[in-house]
Amino acid sequence: MKNWIHIALPKGRLGEKAYAMLKNSGYDCPALEDPGRKLIFENPEKGIRYFWVKPSDVAIYVERGAADLGIVGKDILLEYQPDVYELLDLRMGKCRMAVAGKKDFRDPVGQTLKVATKFPNITRSYYSGKCRDIDIIHLNGSIELAPILGLSHVIVDIVETGTTLRENDLMVYEEIVPISARLIANIASYQFKDTQINTIRERLQGQVERKYD
Questions:
Q1: Which phi and psi angles does 43 have, rounded to 5°?
Q2: Are 192 and 119 in contact (CB under 8 A)?
Q3: Which of 70, 68, 66, 63 is nearest to 90 (CA)?
Q4: From CA 113, how far away is CA 99, in angstroms rounded?
Q5: CA distance 198 to 194
Q6: CB 183 within 8 A of CB 69
Q7: Starting at the edge strand that comes first in sequence, how are the strands of the sheet with 85-89 ordered?
Q8: What is the rounded CA–CA span in Å between residue 111 and residue 104?
Q9: What is the pLDDT of residue 33?
Q10: pTM higher than 0.85
């Protein structure tokens, strides 16, 4: 398997869409399309190996060399800043990182702003650029509850349609950065398997351009 390309796919809808793009680029793997609980799938004819991992772990597998390539959200790259190459914006899984709060929210000027989030590093960087003193409350779920129950003034979270916010009488106040899926590569792999990796990148880029441009 020395010259095989190993690709980490995020479990879920994003990974399924990413595989569809790879399949349409000529990197199909019939074993992956069979239902079951397997996590690793190979196509010896194409010299390619796929495996499913938790979305937030994709960058770790790529950075550490267990995968040559991976598909990961820009939010993960910004939050964890892994030492990888970002090769291509796949322009799917689009959403945005935003500041949201109750509809009657007013920034308590002169006080520390309490911010609940799953993304402390993105949050810290954003408010540092605004020279705003904040208290980060790191939560792992139901972020929307924090301002409703008075735990925080605002939240920083991924917003796709905004439906959950509206249903809980919250609204977006500031957009921090747009988010979409990215193709990333292990640094050493890119040096030693550059021809194979660049071929994959170019084929995926062709699909992106045909679909969006």
A1: -130, 95
A2: no
A3: 70
A4: 12
A5: 6
A6: yes
A7: 40-43, 48-53, 5-10, 69-73, 181-185, 85-89
A8: 17
A9: 86
A10: yes
From CA 141, how far away is CA 192, in angstroms rounded? Answer: 40
| Residue range 73-95, pLDDT digits in tens | 999 999 999 999 999 999 999 99
pLDDT at residue 127 is higher than 80: yes
Q: Amino acid identity, residue 7? A: I
Q: What letters, b where the CB count within 10 A reaches 16 and e where it falls short, cover 1-22?
A: eeebbbbbbbeeebbebbbebb
Q: What SS3 string covers the chain? A: CCCCEEEEEECCHHHHHHHHHHHHCCCCCHHHHCCCCCCEEEECCCCEEEEEECHHHHHHHHHCCCCCEEEEEHHHHHHHCCCCEEEEECCCCCEEEEEEEECCCCCCCCCCEEEEECCHHHHHHHHHHCCCCEEEEECCCCCCHHHHCCCCCEEEEEECCCHHHHHCCEEEEEEEEEECEEEEECHHHHHHCHHHHHHHHHHHHHHHHHHHC
Complete edge-to-edge strand list for the sheet that includes strand 154-159: 134-138, 113-117, 154-159, 95-102, 170-179
Q: Which two tokens stand for residue 180?
A: 């979409």
CA distances from 162 to 1, 71, 78, 186, 210 (A): 44, 24, 21, 34, 28
Measure the CA–CA gap between 213 and 207, rounded to whole angstroms. Answer: 10
* Amino acid found at 180: S
Please give the Cα distance from 130 to 110 (Å, whole number). 14
Tell me the CB-side half-sphere exposure of residue 87, using CA atoms within 13 A: 25
